[in-house]
Amino acid sequence: MQKVALVTGAAAGIGRACSVRLAKEGHAVGVLDLDEARCADTVKEITAAGGKAIALGADITHRAQVQAALAKLRRALGPITVLVNNAGMSEFVPFEELTDALWDRMFAVNVRGTFIVTQEVIADMKAANWGRIVNISSSSAQTGTQVQVHYSASKGAIISMTRSLAEALGPHGITVNNIPPGSVTGTIMFEANRSRLPVPVAQLTANMPVRRLGVPEDIANACAWLVKDESGYVTGQTIGVNGGRVVS
Q: How many structural domains compose the chain?
């Protein structure tokens, strides 16, 4: 039976790359983003290659919208047993200039949104006694970054959430891992903040042990491995895909 995957923030960048890669691996894919219309290109790429996909629109901070999108996915493709929590936001703001509203919005999208989507798919995974959850965090949560305190803190929460969920869901055949990417070009976040980076891109690249920045397909590659049957003994782990920015 074909497994159904849900990828959030899948209209572009890492989410799109994960959706396309999972489809190539044989999954049917729910391609979810804030604007359903923006998912069309991802769905088209998947279906043109012979895969199955459906576009979904929802603000992950609103449970009712998530529930409606997931109901649509289940009707079209079936129960959801693979989840990639990729949707998120980022911004550069000096700590002294952070407002309550900026802090709350960051945590609403990056943490509460991940909580809502995950909670809404767990029943399907428990029913199947099998599931794979991959959370996209950030290497900034591991290193810290002086003008992204709220962003780093929110992604740190995702790492902690991953560990706790791995403990809670392991007995149900569900693994939960997280990938903290390094600097990845070709994403909305990176390109929108390119001019705000603490160092020029050339210097950023020169500082990387592998001497290049990441691309979305680097993250998708790790994601595809984590959701395999053969990766069932891997859970609660932080799988750094960062070009050596963080070495453990």
A: 1
